[in-house]
Amino acid sequence: MSDGRKRIAVALDASERSRLLELARLVGPAVGVLKVGLEAFCGHGPELVRELAALAPVFLDLKLHDIPNTVGGAAAAAARTGASILNVHAGGGAEMMRAAGERAREAATSAGLPVPKVIAVTVLTSLDAAALAEVGFAGAPRETALRLALLARQAGLDGVVCSPEEIGTIRSACNPDFLLVVPGIRPAGSAAGDQKRIATPRAAARAGADLLVIGRPITGAPDPAAAARAIADEINGA
Ligand code: C5P
What we know:
Blueprint: H1 3-6, E1 8-12, H2 17-27, E2 33-36, H3 38-53, E3 58-64, H4 68-79, E4 85-89, H5 94-110, E5 117-121, H6 129-134, H7 141-154, E6 159-161, H8 167-173, E7 179-182, H9 201-207, E8 211-214, H10 216-219, H11 224-236
Parallel strand pairs: 1-2, 1-8, 2-3, 3-4, 4-5, 5-6, 6-7, 7-8
Bound molecules: cytidine-5'-monophosphate.
């Protein structure tokens, strides 16, 4: 598998179980990771994750956010599905992030599963400075994202989800092995949809993203596997 392919996580955002499995079968061989989000998980639960994890590594994108004990328990249950990457919201605080990391690692180890990477969402890529100000976050999204990334690192997590615009700032403040997972990816000419802080696959790869989360530009294409392959080529040429 080319390096470009390994750096794509395809967002399987669909409601029908048959469509999710069809997409996974079509696109799985052309990407490194299958991302299961809230829509698929709420509809089909851990069984679907187990089924997909048998096909390719799964990023279980539940963005957990609650008190530390509750998130710790949920992270442990999520780890037992065999997912390779799990996430929480950094806004839940250091203690919550620490609980998620510790409980997920313990659960995977006792189940004899590989230990998943636990990462934190910094600032959603659908929020711009104005939307952040509305919910009480003063300052530029980049400063907020950096502050939350440093907190996640301090809490012992393996990396963060950030927008393309924050890759450089976070990468230079954290070790090269701190995982940067980046949604808001749009190949030139494709619709932004609800994403506000976006970049092309080439720009995000060049800036230092480890894993590019890409949904609609692949899943909404007439030939999703071909769309994924074209993006992998673009990453390889970055
Ligand atoms: O279709 P699109 O490429 O916009 O899909 C992006 C995916 O990444 C969605 O599944 C979304 O939930 C997820 N995501 C995001 N922004 C974050 C974290 C995750 O868009 N900050």
